[in-house]
Amino acid sequence: MEDVDYYQKHGAVVLRNVLSSYELNLVRDGIDQVLQNPSVRAIVATNDDDDTTGQFFEDFNRWIDIPSLRTFITGTRLSRIGAQLMQSSTATLYHDHVLVKEQGTMTKTPYHQDQPYYDIVGSKTVSFWIPVKAVDETTCLQLIDGSHLGGQWYCPRTFTTREAKWFPPGSLPEFVPEDHTDSTILRWTLQPGDCIAFHHLTVHGAPGVLSTHPRRPVYSLRLVGDDVTYEPRNWVPSPDLGPMLTLLLGNDPRQAGMPLSGPIFPTLFTCPVNLETYPLTGSDALVKAGLVSRLRAEYLVKGAVVLPHFLTSEALRIMLEEVQSTLDMTYISQEGHNVYLDGGDPTLPIDHPRNVCVRTVVGSVAYDLLPKHSLLRKLYAYEPLRLLISCVLGLTTLHRNADDIGCCTVNVFRPGDEQGFHYDETMFSVTLMLTEDEGGGGLFDYFPNLRKKKVSLDELTEEYRSIQQALEGSTKGMVNLPIHPGSLAIFNGHYALHRVSAVKSKTRLVAVLAFNEEAGVTNSEEVRELFWGRRVASPRDDIP
Known about the structure:
By secondary structure, the protein is an alpha+beta fold. The chain has two domains: 2-270, q2cbj1_9rhob like domain (Jelly Rolls, Sandwich), CATH 2.60.120.620; 306-378 and 390-532, q2cbj1_9rhob like domain (Jelly Rolls, Sandwich). Helices cover 22% and strands 22% of the residues. The protein is built from twelve helices and 27 strands. It has helices at 2-10, 21-36, 67-75, 78-86, 242-249, 285-289, 291-302, 313-324, 375-380, 383-393, 457-471, 525-532, and strands at residues 12-15, 43-44, 56-60, 90-101, 109-112, 120-121, 125-131, 142-144, 185-186, 195-198, 204-206, 216-224, 229-230, 267-270, 304-307, 331-333, 360-365, 399-400, 408-413, 418-422, 429-435, 444-447, 479-480, 488-491, 497-500, 508-513, 515-516. The strands form five sheets. Strands 15, 16, 17, 19, 20, 21, 22, 23, 24, 25 and 26 form an eleven-stranded antiparallel sheet that branches. The longest helix has 16 residues, at 21-36. It starts with a helix and ends in a 12-residue tail after the last helix. 41% of the residues are buried.
């Protein structure tokens, strides 16, 4: 959450390597098409008094008619990142913006705020400034540190003639750069794949492009959060999106106080988490709510903790629909194994608990087969979720698994399927229940802390005795983990012997989200072969 805290305090933050080469190519293609075919909204904001040899070109809302930009907007993780930076449950597109300063364009973009030009009100806002070529500090966007704090609006003026065409003269104070010479200017050297996120009230400007520098093509996304609403103006806002709405819908349906929605204001990200119960959007909201300490204490005592109703009902419905569309690609594993998931011990009798083979029949849908924009993928990549899990586990570092087949999968238990008693190889597991067997099967049973970290001979003998009793059907000491659809479970499966009992009537679907203390961890090729029937992921470069 360091980026979130920095953004909230400073009004801008640099995000490194957040765009893939595939996404950059989409944006480059889109910018090229815009330059070749400008819309009626396009403007040239070059000041002839600057002795400039180039031009500053702008165009707006071109994602509507340019497929590559639409593909980028609907697929990029920037919407999810934007929701986190805004501390909002949603991220909605207000408009996109193409800004190209040609080589030799000496015209500077004067210091200004974006929001006073708009016809919206609200505090949860973010713009992404995305250069598709390398930018050094001499040509980078320049932002005044902390200028968004306090919510002050400054008078918006035209860039070239400096006219006050929006708010009546005197109704808003002027921003005078000379009065802010002591302010810190935020600017960075950026490489393709980097971008800057900034608040709509952060004062910013940009230098010209010298004749010794190449063209500076930039794409910008302007997103708004869950407190932003439409506010009609007595003047034409910039950009003026009303005519586009009228063209598409026959009228402009917006009314004062309405949140933005509809065909030109798509909601790009909706947090699937029940934020009323689990307030993940604020950097310290969970701590203030007392959830972290409670969940951590329960995990330490029981070796497991369930977060009921973790998903909203709508998120569960969408996630289930997306997963069900992939079930025909389920790989069925029918391999027997011992409880330690290893080769056993040939020096011990075949009926010894280390060598007894238990039955497991379970299907799994691999990560690379899940829809690339699916809600499950978005949840797995949701940074507040990772932070929540690390807090519950008491870990200072926690990384998403790097396995492009097995990092986030869906286990599929059909009627008759089961997962025999075993210990997990990993120290912990995170699962999300999507459907349960309403016939009373598919139960998650476990024996807490049966395995010990440091084992004496007597403790090992006792562990073997307990395993033998469990395999023979004893339920003494066994706990059932009550997890229902929409619930998240965090479980210490390395030390607790556990199983999923045979499903009786309805297919049980449970997502498995893999995290590790170390970065770059993947499954072995043998595990990939066992659970997903292959060792290599499907080649796709469209996954950010």
